[in-house]
Amino acid sequence: MDKVVTISDFLTSPKNTNKSKEFVNVKAYFYGTIVLSLFIIILYSYWVAERIRKPLQSITKSLNKMTLGNYGTRS
Q: Is residue 1 part of a domain?
């Protein structure tokens, strides 16, 4: 079974090319997690913005009709 290498293990152990490769893998997983998290955050933000935009458009249309004197307008 593979041993998980932490940053402290890497820094305190003697130089070993195998540990260097494992450290690069740890960095790759770390950066991959960050990129995936940012992607999910961007998708969620877009989804929330779309859910807010549609009701606001309806309210804006109704308010525009009311400013023209049609006070019986409903959203």
A: no
CA atoms within 13 Å, Cβ hemisphere of 53: 6
Task: State the Cα–Cα distance between residues 65 and 57, nearest whole angstrom.
Answer: 12
Kindly give the confidence (pLDDT) of every residue in the chain, 75 residues in length, as a single tens digit, with 9 standing for 90 and above. Answer: 556 666 666 556 655 556 666 767 888 888 899 999 999 999 999 999 999 999 999 899 988 988 888 878 776
- CA 25/CA 30 separation, integer angstroms: 9
* pTM score of the predicted model: 0.53
2 assigned to some structural domain: no
- DSSP per-residue codes, 5-32: PPHHHHHHSPP-HHHHHHHHHHHHHHHH
Report DSSP state, residue 73.
Answer: -
